[in-house]
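Next comes this protein:
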Amino acid sequence: MENHNTQMAVDRMAAINGALGDAWGFHWEQDTATHDFDYDFSYLIPKDAVMMYSGGLDSFIQWRLLGKPKCVYFDIGHKASHSEFIRICKATEDLGLDLTRITDLNLEKFEMDNAYIPYRNLFFIMLASLRSPNVVIAQISEWAPDKNSGFYRKTEHLLNGIRKGKFQGLNMGEVSIYSPFSGWTKTELVREYISRWPAEDLERYSWSCYSNGLIPCGKCTACVSRHIAMTNNGIEEKTAEPVDIHLLTKKLSIKDFKIHNIPMYLKRYNEMRKYKKLTGYDQKRANG
């Protein structure tokens, strides 16, 4: 199990037995009251690791939970880059974010209408691995063609086959890709964060919208996913348009189904179910 003094650990104990969860939570409160330190998850990654940082909710929260590792941000000219970098600058100034900004990889013309950029994480991992062979990606419980364990293992195999060569003078270390929170939902990440730090940090230091407006658009799938996680944790954020989770669910397709992802599907289903229960979404939709 991850570090025992975390909200996730308390929740898992409570799932086994309610009294055990209460006892675990009381122990955590006592530790917090009597010890002047923060528990983190830094043991999950090597000390020399470099984290690919986007300025989004997932990367910001994971950066803090992992004990503030060194980061790299790829400013690739995409639509949301300006809004992302504003938050990155705030985190650098206020929280000591140690980040290198890379601007010589321009993928702007390849950005699709839905903001997806093919091969983006492959480019990022290749360039990040030139700074450290241990690369961290802020994946959560999700699946994308370039954001899943199978892709990481194939990428490691590809890169490790071309990092050595006596004639070329290459003798680079073996690349390892880490996704330490790939089993967590966004709701769980937010819950863990606000159990340690102010909820206001999340709006101040992270940007999850695909647009470049003054406030999140509320219409893109990134806004919807963030809204679900925030609502599940009792946090309200302003958006330019009201958020409708149908924008996310209508994109789901059986063509993307993979049997090994069933545990992830169940976690995401339970996350969505909690949101619908809290908001009365199904009833509102039935009433038009």
